[in-house]
Structures
1.
Amino acid sequence: MKNKMLLLMAALVVFLKISAQDSDTKVILITLDGYRWQELFTGADPLLIGNKEYVHEMDALKEAFWRETPEERRETLMPFFWTQVSKMGQLHGNRTLGSKVNLTNTMWFSYPGYNEILTGTADDKNIRSNDKIENPNTTILERYNNTSEGKGKVAAFGSWDVFPFIINEKRSGVPVNAGFETATGNLNEREKFLNELQGQVPSPWGSVRLDAFTHHYALEHMKKEHPKLLFISYGETDDFAHDGEYQAYLKSAHNTDALIKELWDFTQQDDFYKDQTVFIITTDHGRGTEPLDTWRSHGADIKGADQVWMVTFGKGIKALGEVKQEEQLHSDQIAPTLLNILDVPVPKEMGGLPLKL
Ligand SMILES: [Zn+2]
């Protein structure tokens, strides 16, 4: 009898340990604004990299990113995605192989895209512009911040200055550092330096800062505060594309690949995150391909701007690599999937169904 009791207690301890570990998963959600699936899956575009209208230093750019096959080109452009993520995670959205990811909103620009990704439901009635309007919908950041496990353990960093409104920072209580905001509070030396540098390095744009600032503010925050749900939105790719700067667009994609590797490497040497963290990476919209100049644009009038992609890796994610079978995923599935991973009930009103990853 005593032995049985001990056995039962031991089993209970193991069970509790497993449950505790399960609910302890951390999530890093990352977006690359307006980054096309075409470059992600096939590397530098032959029609653009050889076009004087979009490239000023063609020889140097070709040396850096031009290779004969799409497989070589994509690996040269995004080495972390195509040497490490392709072995440990999943890459969805290569339409040449039948794997499709699409937006469900019909706007095909940023605020509706981020609203769909972050709330799990497109809202074409209310979210119809990029104006700084407080989002009436509830993001998963806010939902998680409203749970006892997630309270105060959520943060968002974005290069675009509209994120405080998309996330409704005021109502949600989720701290958002976006646009040209500096780090505040009890600052470490690196944050003090970032604050100084951000004022001294002019951004090419009025409402979007360079991604290195967003990235390092986020990384320092991870080291200090260890958020369990972190959202990072890189913005350069969209703005360089609008400017028609294919050279800068490619360099930015290459750089962002390295920034994401830096985040992953950090999580794998940090006790709080190591083997406990899931990365989900996506984009808020696609861009055009035909006519050629539509690579610079997106929106409902640009064919293909609803074509997006999704990449995931980390704790519990099956290593499928590049998905080579027919499938149709949607951006509104990301939020419920994330709630599932975080062990938070998925509200009935969410449009998308959670993915089994
Ligand atoms: Zn844009």
2.
Amino acid sequence: MSLEKLRQLGIDLPLFPTTSVGSFPKPDYLQKARADYAKNNISREELDAAGRKATEFWIRKQEELGVDVLVDGEMYRGDMVAYFAEHLEGFEEGGLVRSYGNRYYHKPIIRGEVRWENPVTVEWWKYAQSLTSKPVKGMLTGPYTIMDWSFNEKYPTRRDACLALAREIRKEVEALVKAGAKIIQIDEPASSVRPEELPLIVEAMRIVTAGLPAYFISHLCYGAFETIYPGMLELAVDNLDLEMSNSGLDLLELFKKHRYTKDISFGAVDVHSHVVEDQSVVQQRLRRALEVIPREAVWVDPDCGLKTRSVEEAIAKLNACVAAARALRN
Ligand SMILES: [Zn+2]
């Protein structure tokens, strides 16, 4: 399976590689620095210094825990769509809207041609990768989700907006590849909101990843997967990163009916709960996955980003994933 593709890219991973979806909680000093920066009380350099310190903290933590494929923790991001909208041409910041739960964000507005002019994430990726010899994932928000979570005042159709974004996001992927990233994750959490648009998501992803020498992952978030499965297997990526634990592993029933054909980053701990799972619970979940999916295809990670958990909870949940993966290897 794709462990072979990784080997060809020069990355040797153990069975059941462990990773994270992307975000970690921001330490208090970084929360404060972000608030101070928003009020013009500190400079961009001071904010970035706090971001680097927090990134280093999480890289060290992941190494200590023994995670195999690291993430930078997204210390520089607020919202996953607004961050990219701020860094691409063609967007304006919109008013505050409420999204899931009690979270508010500035919904971006597409007012002009969307254009990638400079790398968005590459410097942070390079910094994170410079701190470790383990592979660090490149991480981007996908074109469909950026389109779906923005107002579109420029393009005649959602499809036009999405495909225009796909061509620009590809440039960021190319820049990451050029910088040396071998594992790149394109998040499409909006994937299951409008099942009739799955062909568009597939078309856009193909534009983003086609022909590029990297191992691609896509995180599809919460949602009604039953409405887009097995169609979502068409996505031009090697690995789908899926929330499994919060829904009681329901998806495995779908996988029994129609064979799952990609690698999977199997969400093995619930990120919405403060309760830290015992690693025996995590192992049980993984054993159930192994009844349906070949073991060479299974990666282990939390259901979703850990940014809403405390630093301590995030570490404990990651630790449970690593411990369970190690136990299974033996
Ligand atoms: Zn998610």
